[in-house]
Fold this sequence. Notes:
Layout: E1 5-11, H1 20-29, E2 35-41, H2 42-45, E3 55-58, H3 70-88, E4 100-104, H4 106-114, E5 119-135, H5 137-140, E6 152-163, H6 167-173, E7 176-181, E8 193-197, E9 202-205, H7 213-219, H8 223-233, H9 235-245, H10 251-271
Parallel strand pairs: 1-2, 1-3, 3-4, 4-9
Antiparallel strand pairs: 5-6, 5-7, 7-8, 8-9
Helix pairs in contact: 8-9
Amino acid sequence: MEGKLKLAILDMYEGTRNLGMTNIQDIVRRFGTDIDYEIFDVRSAVKVPDLGHDIYIFSGGPGNPLMGDESWLTPFHDLIDDLWHYNLNPDSYRDGPKKFVFFICHSFQMACHHFKIGEIDRRRKKSFGTFPVHKTDDGEMEWLFDNLNEPFWVADFREFQIIQPDFARMDELGIKLLCIEKDRPHLELERAMMAVRFSPEMIGTQFHPEADPVGMRAYFSEPERMAAILEEYGEDKYRNMVTHLHDPDKIARTHATILPLFLHDAIRKVRAGGLVLA
């Protein structure tokens, strides 16, 4: 395929201030010689792209992933269905490449619910900060994580989560669970699903792979925001997070690896006609 590829960023933040959209765009712009991108404000403006793009990034966002206005919920889930069936049907892409998709946080939860591979659960306390996640056996074989340690560190901000993976359903669809959250043996709580390979073209993470440690340090150093974090989570939590943001083997490594490699690979495969080569 010649010329620039088309990438759709689905903004799920509903107008709330966030670093996610800034970080996603910063990464996408590094591929500016190959990609033109367009942002779709899904929840506030009820804008959902069609199948006219080559690559799709679904952002994180606030709120309960089971709730929303049907005006955008229906086309949102229709798009997931359309992308899934397009890639499954050889007649769909006979004259062009497959479509490549990345789901993040809120969108990841919605995708897992869409495919009925786990249960959405509200956490007892919101996850906030930097944490290690562990690769499953399938995660150890996931090429996108080859350059990451076991465990590797992620930026994780969630009130809801996906638990109770339905492995029978996942086997039926060819879906692989790649990562789970850290073990907490002192608590009788299930470990959340943290990354899933839905298909060779579609992947998602509960955490924020776009999170930029430099931007996060500036964002969480704002006096008002720092005061709110200290009040809710305490000084130890805040200092640990800031320390991790300075460590090149933690969030910086994840930021430099997952989404850039996804985009590099998607561009290569689209230009090759959508053949899955990895």
